[in-house]
Amino acid sequence: MAAQEKRKSLQGLWSSRLVFILAVSGSAVGLGNIWKFPYIAGDNGGGAFVLVYLVCVFTIGLPIMMSEILIGRRGRRNPIMTMKIVGEEEAGQSWWQIVGISGVLAGFLILSFYSVVAGWALAYIFKSATGTFHGIDGPGVEKVFGDLTGNWQILMMWHTLFMLMTVGVVARGVQRGLEQAVRVLMPALVGLLLILFVYAINHGAFVEALNFMFRADFDRLTADSVLVALGHAFFTLSLGMGAVMAYGAYLPEGTSILSTSIAVVFADTIIALLAGMVIFPIVFAHGLDAGQGPGLIFQTLPLAFGQMTGGVIFGTMFFVLLSFAAWTSSIGLIEPAVAWLTERFHMQRPQAAWLVGGITWVLGVGSVLSFNLLADFKIWRPGKDPGTIFDSLDHLASNLMLPLGGLLIAVFAGWVMCQNATSEELDIGDGGIYKLWRFLTRVVAPAMVLLIFLRGVGLI
To answer: Measured on CA atoms in the order 382, 387, 388, 391, is the torsion positive or negative?
Structure first.
């Protein structure tokens, strides 16, 4: 009997293929999807950039996602133990668990500062609902944001609330916690997006937004634009941080890894595009700056909501949407570490969840203080100017640990695992589709992820 047939998941299994797609899509769809992809698409040639991005997604994101899932299902354990077990089976080497350790640690670090930003979104739900932004002007919006980030006690409260929300879901297990959460949150997220999309069509500068996002301007597509597309294609799918591998361990046998991965890629891309078609019609209708990055969410959009009819309602809906996106991502970030504790030390899941959540919360205190009491405290970052604790954690995880993790996952699946093992797990035969996946995983994806890493540390 094959190794993966004898090995059972210790955490339970997803009840269906749809739930797995919802879970991985929820992990992939986060704060960055809502503001970053629409903006970088519009700023780098619109439709021309989207075309390059889609090529990158299917040549980097899809093969690495398939690799993470197949490794996760093969090992049926947390990412650390899975890489150790499969490494020993395929190459007689247990040191591959380092890849799992790196992924779990990266997710842990990301959540510590991600929770702080997600706390902003929670705070803005209540600010919008109580009419804080109604009739507000530019300086007023800046003051609201400055008062929030400058007050460490208030920021700590929202950081704490978001971590409690995250731990509360993960502590309940795969089917009672993770599955029930994504069953509710993902449809709600899409529903909110569609309502806001209809509003944007009827009350925003929709045609101008479509031109900004989709008109193919190849003159604005530079070599740096291609690197931006490469980087976002990798990061948007939550690759290299253990979440996809952990979720893959709960995937039932017989579920197609290829079709589910394609579904996740499409869901992630469509939600990002929909977000752009919600945000930019509103921004352009009010003559605001579309190029503010994260400030677009917490400064530009509140200004627009404050000026438009129904702004209190639709502004509140938008920040609920943003909070849902952050919540589903945070669940994926914390799950690998919780699974490791329960399997390695035989801890009860609630205890493991609260322990990981507590340590993450403590680490997040540094990010909270980065915006106020420790704003002048700077840390050296390779390839960049010194940054705050928040900036440095982001740089370490996003630009160093995740690309290296993704690179090693591709190398492991493409070069270390034998052809029989990967073909059996993918269950797509050994014909053209399998050969294409193998080529992309062995050659194309590693080369492109290496470029992402080199760009992240400032070498190109």
So the answer is: negative
- Tokens 């390059």 -> residue: 52
Tens of pLDDT along 43-102? 888 888 989 999 999 999 999 999 999 999 999 999 999 999 999 999 999 999 999 999
Spatial distance between the Cα atoms of 30 and 278, rounded to a whole number of angstroms: 16
Q: At what angle do helices 79-91 and 62-75 cross, to 10 degrees?
A: 90
Choose among 56, 41, 105, 13: nearest CA to 359: 105
Of the candidates 304, 299, 303, 298, the one whose C-alpha atom is nearest the C-alpha of residue 322 is: 298
Report which of 428, 454, 379, 351 is spatially closest to residue 62, judged by C-alpha positions. 428
Closest CA to 307 of 335, 327, 329, 288: 288
Joined together, the tokens standing for residue 119 give 């706390």
User: What CA–CA distance (Å, rounded) separates 37 from 50?
Assistant: 9
Range 3-456 has CATH code 1.10.4160: yes
Q: List strand residue ranges (DSSP E) for 265-382, in order.
A: 379-381
For the segment 59-70, what is each residue's pLDDT rounded down to a tens digit? 999 999 999 999
Biggest CA-to-CA distance, the chain: 68
Q: Where are the alpha helices (DSSP H) in 151-179?
A: 152-170
Measure the CA–CA gap between 424 and 14, rounded to whole angstroms. Answer: 21
Q: Are 3 and 89 in contact (CB under 8 A)?
A: yes
What the block records as the tokens of 6 is 């004898």
Helices (H), 79-205: 79-91, 97-129, 138-150, 152-170, 180-203
CA dihedral 258, 259, 263, 265 (to 10 degrees): 20
Q: b/e per residue, 287-325, with b = 16+ CB within 10 A? A: ebebebeeebbbbbbbbbbbbbeebbebbbbbbbbbbbb
Question: The pTM is what?
Answer: 0.93
SS3 236: coil
Q: Which two tokens stand for residue 96?
A: 């591959």
Q: Where are the domains of the chain?
A: 3-456
How far is Cα 410 from Cα 442, in angstroms, rounded to an integer?
A: 7
How remote is the C-alpha of 441 from its chain's centroid? Answer: 21
Residue 430: partners with Cβ closer than 8 Å, 6 or more residues away:
419, 423
Which DSSP symbol is given to 397?
Answer: I
